[in-house]
Structures are given as C-alpha cells and as structure tokens.
Amino acid sequence: DSGVTQTPKHLITATGQRVTLRCSPRSGDLSVYWYQQSLDQGLQFLIQYYNGEERAKGNILERFSAQQFPDLHSELNLSSLELGDSALYFCASSAQETGSHEKLFFGSGTQLSVL
Amino acid sequence: AQKITQTQPGMFVQEKEAVTLDCTYDTSDQSYGLFWYKQPSSGEMIFLIYQGSYDEQNATEGRYSLNFQKARKSANLVISASQLGDSAMYFCAMRGPSTISSGSARQLTFGSGTQLTVLP
User: Which chain B residues are closer than 8 Å to A100 by Cβ?
Assistant: First the structure.
C-alpha cells in the first residue's frame, strides 16, 4: 500500500458529462501529481500541485482542471468528456516539490470509461 | 528534453531465473534520477528502485538491482530469482533536476514499458 488514496476506483459516464476524481496524498507529502495512462499515449503528466499551489502543467487539456485543498487532498475535474478521455488516471505524491531524487508514490488509479 | 526508451515490449522468463529489462535514456542534465515502477494487472503503480546520477554504486532493493551505466545512458533493471508474482508491466522513468526552469520538464517521464511474464 503506497499510502496514496484515490476514489472512485472505477467511473463510467457518458460523453459531454463532468466528473471529479479525488486523491489523498501520503501523510506528510506536500506535492500531488496527476497522470493519465492510455494505450496510445502511455503515461502522461498532467499537472502538479505543491502545498495548495499549481507548480507545473503538462499535457492537460483545457477541459480539465485540478486543485489542491488546504488539507492537501486534490481533485481533478474533467468536463465535456469525450470518448478519448477514457483512461486510467493516477494521482501520485511526494514529500517535496522538486528534485531528481524525489520518489513519487502512486495511488491505485481511477479507471474512467466514457461511453 | 528527457526521453526514456524501453525496447522490449514483452519478455518471458522461467520461474527462479534472473531477467534483465532494458532501459536507455536521453538527457542533457548532469543531475537526474532514474526509477523503476511495476504495474501488475490490478493497475496500481508500485515503486521498485531508484538510482541517482551521481550514485557510484548500483542500487539494490531485495531481488531488484539496477545496472547503471552512465556513459551508455542505460539503467537496466535486473530481477533475480523470478517469481510468478513478478508478472507485470515494468516502467522505467526519469526525473530531471529542480534547476530546470520549465516545471513540466522536472516531472517524472516514463518509458513505454515492458510486459514481463514469468513462466512456471
């Protein structure tokens, strides 16, 4: 168990809908990351938060947004969903913001299916 | 830009034998970290092992060791005494130094993965 909690584990929804994915980082970790894993794109970095502030953006669509709350949990909001958004969405956490030595610990992921 | 290459889409190994999963990387940074993660069929990503670019000794964690050849820019994962539970997808990843100005460039970059199957 990595200590990172993601809910829900599975999510099935329809095109055009909006969903929210939730993540609780490991105790003491201040940095939260969101990754998307799909068959064609592999693992792609979406966005990083550190202690409530956005720190880095990757290949995140404008229809997607995220935030980190004062209790350090994070939510990833996906709106106007398309079939191509179907993927496994991971949350990860680390103790610090940056550093090549910083290990990321991943949650078990949310499998999103857009029908 | 960082790039991770895993050239083996799939590998088979007999139970109790050792197996090497290849990983090469490309970076212009002097300071970087190399990581291996395991993803079983259940989907979670499990951290296995870490190697820093300035570490002089190869990292080891139980049955996992990292064969780090800096000049060749390779960071192969060696699993000794394979077990059936080792069957999974394995990802090599790299993270750059905090001094990179672009925040996204400091993030963990993953290879395409190697599907390992351990045969009884």
Answer: 29, 31-33, 52-53, 95-98
Per-residue pLDDT, B103: 64
**Gyration radius (Cα) of chain A, Å:** 13
pLDDT digits (tens, 9 = 90+) for A24-34: 999 999 999 99
Closest residue by Cα to residue A114 from A5, A27, A26, A19? A19
DSSP assignment letter at B81: S
What's the Cα-to-Cα distance from B95 to each of B13, B22, B34, B52, B60, rounded to whole Å? Answer: 29, 18, 7, 10, 19
Beta-carbon contacts of residue A62 (< 8 Å; ≥ 6 apart): none
In this prediction, residue B28 carries a pLDDT of 86
**How far apart are the C-alpha atoms of A77 and A101, rounded to whole Å?**
29
- Kindly state whether B114 is in contact with chain A, defined as any CB-CB distance less than 8 angstroms: no
Residue B102 has pLDDT above 90, yes or no: no
Pairing assessment for the beta strands A10-13 and A64-68 based on DSSP bridges: unpaired
Whether chain A has a CB inside 8 Å of the CB on B40: the answer is no
Question: Can you say whether residue A54 is alpha, beta or left, with left for phi > 0 and alpha for psi between -120 and 50 degrees?
Answer: beta
Q: How many CB pairs under 8 A join A and B?
A: 73
Identify the CA nearest to A10 among candidates A111, A114, A113. A111
Q: Which residues contact B71 (CB under 8 A, 6 or more apart)?
A: none
Q: Are A2 and B53 inside 8 Å of each other by CB?
A: no
pLDDT exceeding 70 applies to what percent of chain B? Answer: 93
Question: In terms of DSSP bridges, do strands A110-114 and A87-94 run parallel, antiparallel, or are they unpaired?
Answer: antiparallel
On the question of pLDDT at B49 being above 90, the answer is: yes
